[in-house]
Amino acid sequence: MVKSELQVARAAYQPKLPQALAGIVKVSEGTATESVADQAEIKKLFPHTYGMPILTFQDGGESMLTAKMNVGVILSGGQAPGGHNVISGLFDGVKKLHPENKLYGFIMGPGGLVDHQYKELTAELIDEYRNTGGFDIIGSGRTKLEKEEQFEKGYEILKKLDIKALVIIGGDDSNTNACVLAEYYAAKGYGIQVIGCPKTIDGDLKNDLIETSFGFDTACKTYAEVIGNIERDCNSARKYWHFIKLMGRSASHIALECAFQVQPNVCIISEEVEAKNMSLDDVVTYIAQVVANRAVDGNNFGTVLIPEGLIEFIPAMKALIAELNDFLATNGDIFNSIKRSKQRDFIIDHLSPANAAVYASLPESVARQLSLDRDPHGNVQVSLIETEKLLSEMVATKLDEWKKEGKYVGKFAALHHFFGYEGRCAAPSNFDANYCYSLGHTASVLIAAGKTGYMASVRNTTAPAEQWIAGGIPITMMMNMERRHGELKPVIQKALVKLDDAPFKAFASVRDSWARETAYIYPGPIQYFGPSVICDQPTHTLKLEQTK
After folding, report:
1. What does the alpha-carbon distance between residue 240 and residue 251 come to, in Å, rounded to a whole number?
2. In which region does residue 234 sit, left (phi positive, over 0), alpha (psi from -120 to 50) or beta (all else)?
3. Nearest CA to 52 among 69, 29, 23?
4. Exactly one of 172, 173, 202, 432 is catalytic; which is it?
């Protein structure tokens, strides 16, 4: 494998561990837990893995050397920086328990478990991937582990390879699946432990005990670098408004964190839009007013950050999409037979008055995306809607109206960007390299302690890594019941941006000044070598959340 000079240097980096994981670990149990909601229903569904205690690791324990055993690992869902370090930390931890222990990776996600596709992860192979981005050591996939047939097929290969524990590295859905699998194997008495690790760049898998999901730090710093570059160009040319869409369909954590790092003129927070029952026109008017105010000062340029999932948080748009889904599911053939130029009028004539008005207000390109670009189930593919172009077009229209009325005196030209995949496989920051390595080690200790249905947890993460607190929390503790595809299902509760928490309050206190002034920050690329204040800093969001 040909490597860049940075790859060679990063391969030599030894991630830091919490002090307790560096020595002989003592496992301390807390009080029994319960789910965040729907306690009776969750307990009934998970009788073998519900109510388990929170675990905290301390140093000074007795030897944790175990009998020889094999461990399996799966990368599930979208990529996030640091996945390879979770695996390398798990590998080192498993080998520490017994030098003859083996680690097997299942190829291309949970589907590899079901289809019996795997490979042994040797020391030579692991060393090639330490401190690197991506999931390419074994690949990832989105197969959901939900059916008994899948569980049994997985058990066949686990039994054949003498695997005693399986570690699933993934987001909220993947860890929900891990918990279901843990419960199934416990109920059957198969003797297979299942441990989860919290992964998602979106940052929506967290709580008091899972302070952050891995990859969020690196992804936000990667996006912030390129946004900062755009801001510098913006401030140099002084003639463009840049509309920048960022990852985050279910929550706005990435947009909020990037806002702290670059101080844009506008950052829309989807959760605030929903809480204030804002219409699409309200959002457009807000942005247009910022543009107009800056134009008064002679500044016909700026930056706007937009979360990927904004459209679904606008109540009127959510209602429109729901009615469109229902209408086109039953009238799709008629719609498709109508002349293209008449399709928009056909939809407007058949929607309720409120939704028809919203649909009619949309630019032609977006209206067509809502009615034509649908998934196999007939639903709107919201992630494909170019929200950044939708907003800029509508802002331009409103500014034209204001110009005729004498309310706007500037010039408006927009450029568009979507930063998504650029951040998912970046080389992990020192924070994520340390955090992920610690999560992998933590998983190995949970295995040695005989636990199942737990998620690896590393806390106190705003302190130096040596002071981090490792342990485990029952996955059932994070669950509630939600309607999925028409049925109530147990799922890990997503963590949205909370408007009464410190990060949003801090943002709200300064955004008006950012809107009028050119207060850009240019964070530059991720730094891996140098003073700790530059290289090891956690996200602004995490520091604000942990400031009590």
Report:
1. 28
2. alpha
3. 29
4. 202
Render pLDDT for 384-425 as a digit per residue (tens, 0 to 9): 788 999 999 999 999 999 999 999 999 999 999 999 999 999
Helix, strand, coil proportions of the chain in percent (round to 5)? Answer: 50, 15, 35
What pLDDT score does 373 carry? 61
41-55, 345-359, 442-456 — which is least confidently predicted? 345-359
In whole numbers, what is the pLDDT of the chain averaged over residues? 94
Token code pair at residue 119: 């490979």
171 and 205 Cβ atoms separated by less than 8 Å:
yes
Which 8-state DSSP code applies to residue 235? H
Catalytic-residue membership of 202? yes
DSSP H or E stretch at residue 87 = helix 83-97
The better pLDDT of the pair 365, 247 is held by 247
The two structure tokens encoding residue 43: 């307990």
Report which secondary-structure segment, H or E, holds 181: helix 172-188
Q: Is the CB of residue 117 less than 8 Å from the CB of residue 107? A: yes
The predicted-structure confidence for 221-230, as pLDDT tens digits, reads as follows: 999 999 999 9
* Exposed/middle/buried for residue 147 (C-beta within 10 Å: 0-12, 13-18, 19+): exposed
**Within its chain, how far is the Cα of 444 from the centroid?**
24
Residues sharing a CB contact under 8 Å with residue 432, sequence separation 6 or more, in sequence order: 81, 82, 85, 214, 215, 217, 218
Q: What is the pLDDT of residue 548?
A: 61
CB atoms within 10 A of CB 289: 18
Neighbours of 271 (CB within 10 A): 18
Whole-angstrom Cα distance, residue 490 to residue 175?
A: 11
Mean of pLDDT values over 511-520? 98
The whole-angstrom distance between residue 38's C-alpha and the CA centroid of its chain comes to: 24
Residues 85, 428: Cα–Cα separation, whole Å: 9
Residue 60 has pLDDT above 90, yes or no: no
